[in-house]
Amino acid sequence: MKKLLLILVLFLFLLGPGSLGISGEDCISFNPNTIEVKLINSSWKIVDGTHWIYDFGNKKDEAIMAFRIIKHYKMNQQCFVGRPDSSFEYLLASGQGPSGKYPGEDCIPFNPNKIQVKFINSSWKIVEGTQWMFDFGNKKDEAFQTYNIIKKYGFSESCFVGRPYASFKYMKKTGYFSNKPPILINNCRKVYPRPRIKFERSNSKGRIYIPVLNWKSYSNSMFIVYTKSSRTWVDIYNAETNEKVYGFHGFNSNEDLSKIWFPKWGMSGKVYIIIKDRACKKTYRSNNVEWTSSEILERVIKK
Fold first, then answer.
1. Using one digit for the tens of pLDDT, what is the confidence trace for 93-149?
2. pTM for the whole thing?
3. If you ran DSSP here, which 8-state letter would residue 65 be given?
4. How far apart are CA 262 and CA 271, in angstroms?
5. Which residues, in sequence order, are CB contacts of 256 under 8 Å at separation 6+?
6. Which stretch of 12-26, 126-140, 223-237 has the lowest confidence by average pLDDT?
7. Segments making up each domain of the chain, as ranges
8. What mean pLDDT is predicted for residues 211-235?
9. How far apart, in whole angstroms, are the C-alpha atoms of residue 190 and residue 123?
10. CA Rg, the chain, in Å?
11. Residue 59 contacts by C-beta under 8 Å, 6 or more apart in sequence?
């Protein structure tokens, strides 16, 4: 009996604190009450004592934002699928999926009841309809494991700090999975004007801003919750190829139309947007606009 206990203690020691996590999952526990943001070796990190949890490089603001999110949701378990080269990571709050809201967080909603694992373009993916959510390459088992984890915790939002190159990602649940649409505030007879967009600016993070100039022409009722996300989706397309490059499916008001952006590709290009009212099955396409990277603009200014 003593030998058995000794073997068990040795086994737990080798695994390390918190490694067992929840049954069948690979989780490491930490204390959200003692975590700190520290500059270590010229890199901003979230640490718990001597344990480095996340590394943000020179992105101090993103480290602070992630720190506040962890504290807000009381996250205390960092979990992985497929270590050491993990294909999926998520955080838990005492064995539960985080829920609620935090000001300024960047989340994309989805319906966990509609996700599937599919083999597309020689790669295993988790998808919702035509939307590719997570890509696992040739790791079929990890794709299905992640699928089961999403189902288990009822995750319904993918959240990010610092897109398009997110330095911190997490999942949370909202509890809203109904397929039954709410009663529309306004009827579908109303026709809205064509959206007018312009190239406003680009920044050092690679974001190109193209606000909708006539955003006040659209009713706030277009952005009520409809099924799993906003009633109205806004998608951005490459005007030369008609390929979608980015999208917003969680707007809450018409003012959000004035804050549209997308991650740049190349040094310049041309785009348009489509506003899709899913409840009334109507679409509104904007004008085309040309955009230019800040790198080119800086060269022009210096000349």
1. 999 999 988 888 999 888 888 899 999 999 999 999 888 999 999 999 999 999 999
2. 0.54
3. H
4. 10
5. 223, 248
6. 12-26
7. 16-172, 201-302
8. 87
9. 43
10. 22
11. 44, 162, 167
Three-state DSSP at 1 gives coil
Q: Which CATH architecture has domain 201-302?
A: Sandwich (2.60)
CA gap 224, 85 in Å, rounded: 40
Distant-in-sequence, close-in-space partners of 130: CB < 8 Å, separation ≥ 6: none
Return the SS3 of 143.
Answer: helix
List Cβ<8 Å contacts ≥24 apart for 259-263: 259/209, 259/211, 260/197, 260/209, 260/210, 260/211, 260/212, 260/234, 260/236, 261/207, 261/208, 261/209, 261/210, 262/207, 262/208, 262/210, 262/236, 263/163, 263/164, 263/206, 263/207, 263/208
Alpha helix (H) ranges present in 74-215?
A: 140-153
User: Residue 270: what residue type?
Assistant: K
Give the pLDDT of residue 227: 66
> What pLDDT, on a 0 to 100 scale, did the predictor assign at position 185?
45
What pLDDT digit, counting tens, does each position of 177-188 carry?
544 454 454 467
Residue in 70, 76, 102 with CA at minimum distance from that of residue 22: 76
d(CA 30, CA 1): 32
